[in-house]
Structure to design on (159 residues):
């Protein structure tokens, strides 16, 4: 939300996206300069696609309903599909320069996709948490650990 003293630092309309990107830069530089940088994975994602045209059809098969709840009449929506893709950037010294990832390649399920539930699913997997999944959706979601497990040493050329 904008205030009279300071502009909003998010990328939502009608805010200036410059301020949102300045915020992302400040978070990155703070992490990059910290002693924990070599143990960091920064996930930058959005809650929507920003209104841009999406050429990839949304997945409608093999997507589990998170909790089995069915919406009210007249639509009875089952929450068993995903919406449009949203931009996500993963930053870490453990990721090869120039990496572009398009999907989780059939893991943990043949129909798995990256989506918002991938974040808690990744945390559960990386830290080997024994607690149950939060929902059927994060149990199904693709996880990001594969993109940070390709190097034996962290990169030192990060800006």
């Amino acid at each position: 939300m904008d205030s009279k003293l300071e502009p909003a630092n998010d990328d939502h309309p009608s805010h200036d996206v410059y301020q949102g990107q300045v915020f992302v830069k400040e978070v990155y530089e703070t992490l990059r300069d910290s002693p924990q940088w070599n143990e960091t994975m920064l996930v930058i994602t959005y809650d929507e696609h920003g209104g841009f045209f999406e050429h990839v059809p949304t997945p409608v098969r093999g997507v589990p309903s998170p909790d089995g709840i069915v919406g009210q009449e007249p639509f009875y929506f089952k929450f068993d599909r995903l919406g449009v893709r949203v931009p996500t950037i993963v930053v870490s010294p453990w990721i090869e320069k120039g990496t572009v990832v398009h999907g989780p390649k059939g893991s943990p399920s043949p129909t798995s996709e990256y989506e918002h539930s991938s974040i808690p699913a990744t945390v559960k997997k990386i830290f080997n948490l024994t607690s149950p999944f939060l929902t059927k959706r994060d149990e199904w979601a693709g996880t990001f650990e594969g993109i940070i497990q390709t190097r034996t040493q962290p990169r030192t050329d990060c800006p």
Q: What stands out?
A: The first helix runs from residue 17 to 32. The two ends are 30 Å apart (CA to CA). Helices lie at 17-32, 118-126, 136-140, 145-148. The chain is about 20% helix and 5% strand.
